[in-house]
Structures are given as C-alpha cells and as structure tokens.
Amino acid sequence: DQQVKQNSPSLSVQEGRISILNCDYTNSMFDYFLWYKKYPAEGPTFLISISSIKDKNEDGRFTVFLNKSAKHLSLHIVPSQPGDSAVYFCAASATGGTSYGKLTFGQGTILTVHP
Amino acid sequence: SAVISQKPSRDICQRGTSLTIQCQVDSQVTMMFWYRQQPGQSLTLIATANQGSEATYESGFVIDKFPISRPNLTFSTLTVSNMSPEDSSIYLCSVDSSGYEQYFGPGTRLTVT
Fold first, then answer.
1. Is A22 in CB contact (< 8 Å) with chain B?
2. CB nearest A102 (choices: B45, B92, B106)
3. E-only strand ranges, chain A
C-alpha cells in the first residue's frame, strides 16, 4: 500500500508565480515530514522538513504546511524560478521505535518552471 | 551536511552476475541506508546498515539477494546478486544527520541485460 502519495505527477508554472506541491499520507505514526528535490543523474537533495508538532515551517522561498487532521502537507515555492525545475519528493518518517530513520517516499512530482 | 560518494556511477551488467556498489562518507555517521529507485517509481528503502551489526532489511528484500557490509563509520557496500533485468534501477545510499533528515549520494544507475 502507498502510505505517502503525491497525486500530481507533474506541475507547470510561470517564473515568479507560486508553485504548490501536495502530498497525502495514511500512516498515523508518521510524525516527521520532509521534501527533497532531485535533478536527473543526481541524488535527492534535502529541502525542508516539518515536525508534527508544527503546522508551518519556512526557509527562504520554501514553506511547508502540515494539516495533521487531513493527513496532508504541501510545499509552497515563492517566487518560482527556472532553476527550481526538478522532481520533488515528499517523504515521511515515524521517529519513534523500530521505524527510526526509515523514510517512506511519495512517487514524486515533476515541477517545470517556465521563464 | 555530509559529502557522499558512490562507485560506480553507472554500470551495465549481464543477468546472473553480481555488482558491488560502494558508498563513502566524508565524516563518521551512525546510520547508513540503501534505497532503490526503479524506473518511474519512488525511492524504496532496501535496508539500514549500522556499523558493527547486521543490516536490517525491509519487507521484500533479503540478505541473499542484497548483502550489505558496514566495516566502519564512513563506508558501506551493497551487492546486487544474481541480477535479472528487474534489478535495473538507481541504487542510492544515504546517511542520517544530527536531526531526522537524510543526505543522499549521487546514486548508481544499474542496467541489467
């Protein structure tokens, strides 16, 4: 079963506008969430994370929002730049117990930012 | 963040053979992880490798197929044994940070013919 889902395979936005990438999860044990960016032929690069005790975390142009009741998180990129074009993966972790360190990834969303 | 390198970066192998992938980190880390990304798919955790103990494998992955070594705090290897075309994937190692984030190597692109 897919415990972390990114239902949009792709997203296209204009430079300078907002990009919103969405992610849903089903496992109530997940308490830490991360976003990674991946360019072709490279490994995923960590972008931003959020703990379940928060509902928002901001780092420069990147903001992650968490809605625990809906089991939904989103990544906002403002303003979007052509260099942001990449595959974005949502990941989740249950930080307690035997699952510590294990990341469960979504399928990824291909973001294309047009100049 | 740690700097992680992997060797080889890519390889084309014949079915039935084995390939060992190396992962080197520029600092000592407690936990190292091996992931697989099949074509068009997400990243899936294969196993967790802690120094001085046996690797812990995820459901669907077994030690006979994916033996792992972790001889010290900066190095690990993953072997893909008796390969078939279904093993064609990108294999990635990652390490934990001081928090819950993981940092990934560049990956090894494996094609099995």
1. no
2. B45
3. 4-5, 10-14, 19-25, 32-38, 45-51, 56-59, 62-67, 72-77, 86-93, 104-105, 109-114
